Amino acid sequence: MSISKYYIPFVFLALLSCGEFEEKSSSMDDTPEVSVDQNQNINIELENTIFSIPSPVQIAMELSDSNSSFSSALLHDADQYEKYSSSFDKAMMLGIYGTDLAYCSVNELSGKSITYFSTMKKLADKLNIGFAINESLVERFSANIDDRDSVLVMASEAYVKIDEYLKENDNQDIATMVLMGGWIESMYIQSTALQSDTSEVNQLKLAHHKYALNHFITLLEKVGTGDRYWELQSMLGDVKKLYNEIPTTYEFKPSTTEATTQTTQINSTSSFDTDYGTMLEISNEFINLRNYYTK
Amino acid sequence: MKKLLFTLLTFLTFQPIISIGQTKCDSLGAIVSSMINNGDEGFLTDGQSYKYFLGEDETSEIITTLYEGINYRIATTAGLEDNYMIFELLDEQRNLLFSNANHNNAPYWNFKVENTIECTIEAKLDPNRKLNGCAQMIIAFKKDN
């Protein structure tokens, strides 16, 4: 009886808290399927601002289009994943292996792609987010391994699921480290490419990541939860000082929109006044950073 | 024993509510994903989840870099109707580059980029169509051929 006494108010509160979308128009009453409890903790943005980081697949695609040839020596050994014990390291390695997967997939190395996908699965299990790379996805990945486009779609799907799960479960710090690891590995590969081909095109590709670097520093300020985050933030701050030596300009120009194809051409222009000396220093910083975190 | 039973009853009361909310909010993912490759156009998501709960007059912003030589598709949804969401693309000086409000709140739009630029995507619910709710956005890309 006493239990019922306590239980009834909870049932009442539960019914009250079952919030739905407030539809402005009654004509939209036929769309109630997508609704959400307003008290649910799904606010994943940081003070209403989210930072978008370039996908490892995008950077790998750019590399494959340049003169840089694939080098397996740049990959982080997949067998090393067991050496990482802290959540910080495991999350960073998940990102690093994610980029290695993208790098292999873009270059159509199916055997290595499977290896890195499997390693990501093992690391995800260790981070208790194994369901993001579930057995169904692993099977689809294996079955389509020779289809580069399908593999890249599935890899991107896995990245989204990992990111979504971590953010929705209030693991912003871990989600940031997964993105961080992926980006550091991308910068490592791109920096190595720059050192073997010092063309202005390669310099610009690395220079364009000035904004992403700033985004990561801000993210770490917001979600960092310990010394290792502050240490990484400090190291990125050193790279930022070098990036600040590259003068940039921006000029707004109105965009051109073609409604029939739902396409807008962004006509604004920007420039990055790179010099090889500074870009070489930046590339060395990225290579050292990546080697500092890998065992 | 009573404490255990009490805890169990409380859990059983709230769990379905949380699950229902989660499931229905999660269904936005399938809706917005279908906008990315509705014509097998070769777009890939950037690997990040942009999901948020928007209140009345509340805006969420995503700061991103658009890289030269890449084509982008930005897609967003807040439900089964296509036009609940308004999104704007602003440059680093807050100049308006695009607003889907000028195109009947089109749920997705493509962008071609000549030069690498930093942008802000501002997203909010159209107050004439929905007052609050869960929303999701995808930023997808493909190489410019």
Task: Please characterize this protein's 3D structure.
The complex is a heterodimer of chains A (295) and B (145). By secondary structure, chain A is mainly alpha-helical. Chain A has one domain (44-293). Helices cover 59% and strands 7% of the residues of chain A. Chain A has helices spanning 2-16, 56-65, 87-106, 110-126, 135-143, 148-168, 172-196, 200-207, 210-223, 227-243, 276-293, and strands at 22-23, 49-51, 248-251, 256-258, 263-266, 269-272. In chain A, a hairpin with a 4-residue loop joins β4 and β5 (263-266). Chain A starts with a helix and ends with a helix. With 145 residues, chain B is an alpha+beta fold. Chain B has one domain (32-143): Jelly Rolls (Sandwich), CATH 2.60.120. Chain B is 23% helix and 43% strand. Chain B has 1 helix and 9 strands; from the N terminus they run αβββββββββ. In chain B, the strands form 2 sheets. In chain B, strands 1, 2, 4, 7 and 9 form a 5-stranded antiparallel beta sheet that branches. Chain B has a 4-stranded antiparallel beta sheet with strand order 3-8-5-6, with no helix packed on it. Chains A and B meet through α1, β1, β2, α2 and α6 of A and α1, β1, β2, β3 and β7 of B.
